[in-house]
Amino acid sequence: MATSVENNFLPPSLISNLQKVLIARDNGVQQQSDKSFGSPLSSSTLSSCSSNGEPSKCSKPVVLVTNGEGIDAPGLTFLVEALVLDGRFSVHVCAPQLDKSASGHSVTIQETITVSLAEISGATAYEVSGTPVDCISLALSGMLFSWSRPVLVISGINRGSSCARNMFHSGAISAAQEAVISEVPSLCLSLNWKKDLS
């Protein structure tokens, strides 16, 4: 499968991640129903719907959602609601307590990071006092969630453009990059929305 990077302005690493998922789907690595996600899954990437520790019939692939604008940002809420409504994924959220939009790839040092449960309908959610990169590091460390790896990390939906030089200081993009560094496919969504129009 060949994709031209020349005119689409997407980061090559994102294109590479998406190509891997599409190739895996095309090669039929895993036979699934039409409603399931097309990338290969292992038992470590599935979340169980039962609380007694036994595998259940309703295991779904895990998607981890974060952002740079904080747990209460409308973009995060809309994205999580859409994923939960879709019903194909077990949605987990780990996002900053406050807006950390321009934090870049910074991590919190010499401060205690606090984590608390957050309420987002249909999702398991935590808010973290640190940066978006801290959120991904904590979520993938195994300290917050019982799964070992999600099948995908989605960062966003970021308000405003994350193009050109904005990429270098975007907390949302850095969260997606941190997931890639940990070898988890990721993407960052941004929408240059306008009040009362978008």
Give a description of the structure.
The chain is of the alpha/beta class and 198 residues long. It contains four helices and seven strands; from the N terminus they run H-E-E-H-E-E-E-H-E-H-E. It has helices at residues 12-26, 74-86, 132-141, 171-181, and strands at residues 46-47, 60-66, 90-96, 115-120, 123-128, 152-159, 186-191. Helix 3 (132-141) packs parallel to helix 4 (171-181). The radius of gyration is 17 Å and the shape is globular.
Give descriptors for this structure.
single chain, 198 residues, alpha/beta, 7-stranded mixed sheet, 4 helices, 25% helix, globular, disordered N terminus
Classify the helix fraction into a percent range. 10-25%
The percentage of residues in β strands lies in 15-25%
Q: Summarize model confidence as the mean pLDDT.
A: 76
Please tally the helical runs, counting DSSP H or I stretches of 4 or more residues.
Answer: 4
Class computed from helices, strands and strand pairing: alpha/beta
Described by the principal axes of the CA atoms, the overall outline is: globular
Poorly predicted regions are 1-11, 29-58
Measured distance between first and last alpha carbons: 34 Å
Q: What's the helix-strand series?
A: HEEHEEEHEHE
Largest sheet properties: 7 strands, mixed
Number of strands: 7
Radius of gyration: 17 Å
